């Protein structure tokens, strides 16, 4: 893990197109501003993990008998 020290209004760059700026520090909270291309998803980690778990559960779900064949017929 890379650990950096930044002051309010200072930034760091990830690659050429993602900038993270420290907007402020209040007590034990840090307010961040993130500039990134619109095609990059940005989530809090707990939300990201929840999405990953839901995707994993959906991938394990079984389709009702015949549903996959019905969907294939609709594509034709």
Give a description of the structure.
It is a single chain. By secondary structure, the chain is α+β, with helices and mostly antiparallel strands. It has one domain (11-75). It is built from 2 helices and 3 strands. The protein has helices at residues 45-60, 67-75; strands spanning 11-14, 18-26, 29-35. It has a 3-stranded antiparallel β-sheet with strand order 1-2-3, with no helix packed on it. Strand 2 (18-26) and strand 3 form a beta hairpin. It is elongated, with a radius of gyration of 21 Å. The termini are far apart.
> Per DSSP, what share of the residues sits in E-state strands of 2 or more residues?
25-35%
- Strand order in the sheet with the most strands: 1-2-3
N/C terminus separation: 50 Å
- What is the chains' assembly state? single chain
Rg (CA only): 21 Å
H/E element sequence: EEEHH
The count of strands amounts to 3
Structural class: alpha+beta
Q: Report on the biggest sheet.
A: 3 strands, antiparallel
Discrete helix count: 2
Spans where pLDDT lies below 50 across 5 or more residues: none
Helix content class: 25-40%
Mean pLDDT: 91
Large-scale geometry: elongated
Domain module tally: 1
For this entry, give a set of tags.
about 80 residues, alpha+beta, three-stranded antiparallel β-sheet, 2 helices, about 35% helix, about 25% strand, elongated
Please describe the topology of this protein.
Blueprint lengths: L10 E4 L3 E9 L2 E7 L9 H16 L6 H9 L1
Antiparallel strand pairs: 1-2, 2-3
InterPro entries: CsrA, CsrA_sf
Subunit structure: Homodimer; the beta-strands of each monomer intercalate to form a hydrophobic core, while the alpha-helices form wings that extend away from the core.
Subcellular location: Cytoplasm
